[in-house]
What does this fold into?
Amino acid sequence: MTTRIEKRAAAVDGPPNLVDYEQARASFSWEASRHELDGLPDGGLNIAYEAVDRHVRSGHGSQTAVIWRGKAGARKEITYADLERLTNQLANVLASLGVEAGERVYSLAGRIPELYVCALGALKHRAIFCPLFSAFGPEPIAERLQLGEAKVLFTTERLYRRRVAQIRDRVPTLEHVIILPDPKPKAPKGTIDWNDAMGNASAEYRIAPTDPEMPALLHFTSGTTGTPKGALHVHEAVLTHYVTGKLALDLRPGDIYWCTADPGWVTGTSYGITAPLVNRVTMVVDEAEFDPQRWYGILEEERVQVWYTAPTAIRMLMRSGPELPRSRDLSNLRFMASVGEPLNPQAVVWGYEVFGKPFHDNWWQTETGGIMISNYASMDVKPGSMGKPMPGITAAIVREGDDGRLHAVDDPKKDGELALRPDWPSLFRGYWNNQDRYDACFRDGWYLTGDLARRDEEGYYWFVGRADDVIKSAGHLIGPFEVESVIMRHPAVAEVGVIGKPDPVAGTIIKAFVSLQPGRQWSAELQKELLGFGRKNLGTAAPREIDFTESLPKTRSGKIMRRLLKARELGLPEGDTSTLEGGSS
Ligand code: AMP
It folds into this structure.
């Protein structure tokens, strides 16, 4: 297996934005980068203005901002000028509904053009935008709407009918539901039709002064226990989006760029909306689900130059073989990157063999708001490594010392928790209504990521695992507690424990173990019923496998020991069982 892919600088594609890593790090400052953004004419910094309006002002209104490829074959181009007008209208719609700065505007929709208008229009109006993943079932949707105290929801008629109508009265704060024109424009009772709302709205809107510290985005993420956490980001995050888009993804104005992530997850917002637009690229949006033929077709037909995708998709492409990409002209591809879960070294090398360039892994998380560790166009790639910290980012591997404080570990053989100095613009500013959980992320001057990692003698970081029980399935972070709480509601279930089970394609799948109420018998029918129950209520967060167990291993304080369930499932050593109920002490 190749252990290093060397970069021969400045080949045919011209020099990358980051030419020399060490030099870029040494000379970098956030203040200097801030001058590459415009700022609002009336003061402050607004993500939507930097992403859209400023490009129109500097004479690029006719450049295509979005190339939209519809599921059924439609293709649409939206220019920066179109986007400015549409987002102005959207901001006016919110104003007419009485939405005030800081109130929460949600979306629940597939990757349709209106979703992007909602995001940017809400940011212009200085509301807090919160995108939900459209494959979630009613339970995760209800929980997130409640937790974030949603005032407005943009969704489609189909999703409203199937997922929202039945839970709407559980969200008393939700005043307005606007039905997007997909596929049927008919708005059900109690909702507002998009065309009516937008048709009456003016295309002029002046963004009010926006303090860079004003909240802008709310992204729900999961922990091991408790409800999902709403990570709150501010308008200043746009500076990280700009810098990382430029230096980590090598975005250049006018590039054709495709981020395959859905805006329901943080990558689809930071790198599927703001980073590309603020760097004035033309971004491709594909409405359809993964399909190898379709994906290679898009790369070729749209002449994609920079492509940002995820390990699960890359593994599925690998499975579909090298003939498909070899039958296409993919010569426009300049840079390929991946994020979200460990990228196998084989996948990096496969990319190199098939496309003539490696996938560049990078690392970040909802809380960091943007890429923190990355492989760069000009830097040698060590397959399997996440790369090195971004200019402007101080990272370390930390462990608790004898003095009870955290210390950076210099030994490349030792792993520890990946920690970052909390001083970059897109660091989250809080968990919505949950100060304690936020405070618990910081210690001894570090932001603790919850990931275990290692740093080698050259300064490359290597992912080791999660320090907690959260599950990354097909790149999506799922909290076991949320899944357990829903499965528990089934009348046959007494107890449930959820783990991540390794899977060659999805990385990890969700597996639940249940014990039953007295008098209930385990059967293939009940198993099927429980799987269906999970799918109906949880959607994409549902367990793919459910098995019966007589009883679940618990700590003496009654907490289910997921770690043990996992070890037993995988036939691994059970490790320390001293806290196990009935175990040795
Ligand atoms: P999320 O907040 O949903 O974006 O998930 C963030 C988590 O995904 C991180 O804390 C890691 O556990 C995992 N992750 C993200 N990028 C990578 C990567 N390049 N390699 C390994 N794990 C990753």
Notes: The chain has two domains: 21-455, 469-570. The first helix runs from residue 21 to 27.
